[in-house]
Amino acid sequence: MKRKAVAVAKKAKTTAIAAAALAAFTTAPVATAEPDSTASNGATAHAGERFFIETSARPIGCTINSFIIVDGEASLLTAGHCIKAAKNEGTPLQVKTVSGQALAGKEELGRATYQVNRPGLLFDRTNGLQDVATLPLAEGVDVDYTTLKSSFTPSLGSSEILRGFFSGEPVGLGEPRRVTANLTGTMVCKDGSTTARTCGPIVYANEQTQDVVALIPSFPGDSGGPLTILGEDGKRHVIGTGSLSLGLISIYDNR
Fold first, then answer.
1. What is the DSSP pairing of strand 236-246 with strand 196-206?
2. What's the total number of domains in the chain?
3. Is Transport found in the keyword set (predicted)?
């Protein structure tokens, strides 16, 4: 079922952390065609989907986390460093899906907001990670907000053979949930546009800063992807946005 995006409560956080000691989920460049001047109607979007921002320098690829309403306008949520990278690379021109459907144009990109404050002290109990962005969607873009799905995209020299080991089959998506300290040890899954759905245990959950550290691998292009927990309703619920990665450990910001 497809409907317009529904409101999701957005928690504002102010963080101040030491210089970064962890490697970031880096944004992945994507080969694209020349952008149109405006976004077209009829595009659809879902959580876990790959999108890329075409700029005057190069395209920036990331993952859709979920959707929220900002000032009455449907917007996608992703990692803040994705939008920041696009604006630092050159002039942002357009946002598209892998299939080439336009999600946003220059006007929407000009109104995108992002916050990036990334950690150096991983287990700081008072100062947390902040890496979130909202991007208004162009008029006519529909959102399938009840479904989470992702797919494996070969990159970094990975082979098509690996595709069979990564899958992100469609699952029901429920309302987002807050991070609580008792989530440590709970199995969670990340959906990203490079490595699809990968799962592992939470090794650290900070209820105050709403940051989560999980034993889950992530790669370039997975940035912004949703970290989800399985609810009693059988649906998956977002508890974080992909931000940082260090080998098999990934860090997520819960808005």
1. unpaired
2. 2
3. no
Nearest to 241 by CA among 54, 83, 31, 16: 83
Q: Does 83 reside within a domain?
A: yes
pLDDT digits over 109-165, tens only? 999 999 998 765 455 667 788 899 999 999 989 888 889 988 666 554 444 444 444
Structure tokens at 222: 């997975």
pTM, two decimal places: 0.78
CB atoms within 10 A of CB 108: 24
The sheet with strand 130-136 has its strands ordered as 66-70, 73-78, 130-136, 113-117
Provide the CATH number for the domain around residue 49: 2.40.10
Domain that holds residue 163: 144-253
